[in-house]
Design goal:
The protein is an alpha/beta fold and about 210 residues long. Helix 6 crosses helix 9 and helix 7 packs across helix 8. It is elongated and about 75 Å long. It starts with a strand and ends in a 17-residue tail after the last helix. This is Response regulator.
Amino acid sequence: MTDHIVFVVDDDERVREALSELLASHGLRALAFGSAGDYVSADKPDLPACLILDVELPDISGLDLQKQIAGRDHPPIVFITGHGDIPSSVRAIKDGAVDFLTKPFSDSDLMAAIRVAIARDREIRSERAELGVLKQRYQELTPREREVLPLVVSGLLNKQAAAELGISEVTLQIHRRNVMQKMMAASLADLVRIAERLEIPITHSRRAGGSERE
């Protein structure tokens, strides 16, 4: 049982069978579909994956499917086509496809593209999981701690951030320490990176004046 999968969408049954056999010979599990609609409506395993997608399909084109699923969580795409043209290939790659292969293509070129796609999907999934953990930690902050976080990462001095919130500097330091602990930030620089990952808006900037004491 592999921990990844390849989806094949091609309206030619012979192509689907040939690709499935090729993938199996390389130890890759495959699921094949004859149309974009069949692929979209199917229950698919939640695994690192690659989508081998024919450009010409009976319902909508592969390029249109690529556009439809853009922004969703979907596997990186490797296009295959018997009627390749430069505008289509440029559009596909610009919209994020790993490769655009014109039939007949070599097995080695296809397998290389598939490996790149699966590796990219693993990385995307890992980043998505890490972001999910950060979001969960952020949800565990108190409302006041969520107010403190953007002020801290903006570079304001403790006394400036405390004045902004109308609290004492000691209280601000307590909230700051709690934020660091709950977000598991090893340093202020680490907390800044976390805030960037969470896209927390920074509405203040550090004003001129002295250095901050911890």
